[in-house]
Amino acid sequence: PRVLVNGAGAEDNVFVPGKLYDYLMARRPVLFVGDRGDAWDITAETSGAGCCFRHGETEALAVAIAALDPRPADLPEAVAYGLERTFAPLLRLLAPAAR
Fold first, then answer.
1. How far apart are alpha carbons 91 and 99 in whole angstroms?
2. What is the mean pLDDT of the chain?
3. Roughly what angle, to the nearest 10 degrees, separates helices 83-98 and 18-25?
4. Which of 15, 19, 66, 81 has the fewest CB atoms inside 10 Å of its own CB, making it the most exposed?
5. How far is CA 49 from CA 3, 46, 82, 85, 90, in A?
6. Which range is most confident: 28-37, 69-78, 87-96?
């Protein structure tokens, strides 16, 4: 699994690091540290609500890390965050330029 840490400021609650999409496309579980927001919601949806922690929940995060398998199973494909859907807006913008 991967550990992804978002900033502690309220402005980071709407920030979704691009790395999260990399992890999801690789079908790797994610442990998320941050406040409730978009990245939290995506992680809870794909890896499970028990994989999300607030910055102060260091003991719970440590327990989760200690309980990890050396190589946990891959996640099911997260179609909502896959290549086609994630990059669709960019590909639509680039399509006319390719003609």
1. 13
2. 86
3. 110
4. 66
5. 14, 9, 20, 23, 30
6. 28-37
